[in-house]
Structure of SUOX protein:
Amino acid sequence: MAFRRGYEAFLRTVRAGFRGAHGARCARPQILGANAAAAAVLTCQYSNQRTISSCEASAAGGSSSIIRFRVDSDRPGLLSEATEVLKKQQINIRDARISTEEASPRATHVYIVEDRGGGGLSDQRLAEVRAALQQLASGSCEAEPWPLFSSEEVSKHQTPESGIWVSYKDGVYDITSFVQNHPGGKDKIMLAAGKAIDPFWRIYQQHTGRGNALELLETMRIGDLSDPPKESSGACSCPYDSDPERHPGLIFHNNKPCNAELPSELMMDSWLTPNPVWFIRHHHPVPVVDPEEFRLCIE
Ligand code: HEM
């Protein structure tokens, strides 16, 4: 499948907000993680005089849903008609893509969407979307689940052969073809292969603070994480709870207490080893001290 040449231009239009046949705008799309709840997919096959197509609408149940609109014969105007349909359903489009097959008129329009009040679409709303898209053509529909993966499953994908997967919040992403093109280098991104990238991105905040890393990531989504990391409640239930967050790229030999060393991939980043990547050798929890109160007496 090759991305259509006009895709980038189209995406810019989508991100700026759609202006469809009736000139109205829909909300500016944002890229967010989808929810881990089980999802339903509605699939419909239909045809009319202009095109033969199929449509899948997957509900993530939480923060986003995915709609795949497959057409056997793409035609000018179909995209704006479909987006108008979604807009009339008061569905926010966070991301949109079109992929085509080489030497074929077939195309797949993919929309990552959220419901008007935020979140993924309920089964009822999916049915409404299906019915609305059927205004473009008529046909039959099927339901199937949206892929749900556990962290353990993600951890089995760390090589080009098995596919390189990562998770972020409650989403699962196949980054195999992106790894070579990562602006921060292949070595760095491979530190997170098969793992959650959340702790890495807490360190390398340029991914979330600016630029298009989140949007890029969303284009590689393949499913939802069934066991996403829990937000810390801040409650102190163990002596190690207040230990600082360590650089996730370190090689951990022990967590409580923390013993870790610097991997070679990070060694040459700086001649002066930055504090966060110094080797760590603890025997106890890190003491909690108030810098204002703390006094060191040397006798
Ligand atoms: C898996 C999905 C990832 C995506 C889609 C991604 C995407 C990007 C993008 C778009 C940039 C350029 C940012 C900018 O300058 O605006 C970037 C830079 C960078 N990334 Fe990633 N990244 C990913 C994972 C990681 C991981 C896991 C690490 C760390 C282990 C990492 C480390 C870096 C570093 C060090 C830079 C260079 C920052 C700089 O030179 O300013 N990235 N990444």
User: Anything to note?
Assistant: Residues 1-50, 138-145 have pLDDT under 50 and may be disordered. The pocket of protoporphyrin IX containing FE is lined by residues 166, 175, 182-184, 188-189, 191-192, 197, 200, 204, 206-207, 210-213, 216-217, 249 (CB under 6 Å). The chain has three domains: 2-146, 149-225, 237-299. The chain is about 20% helix and 25% strand.
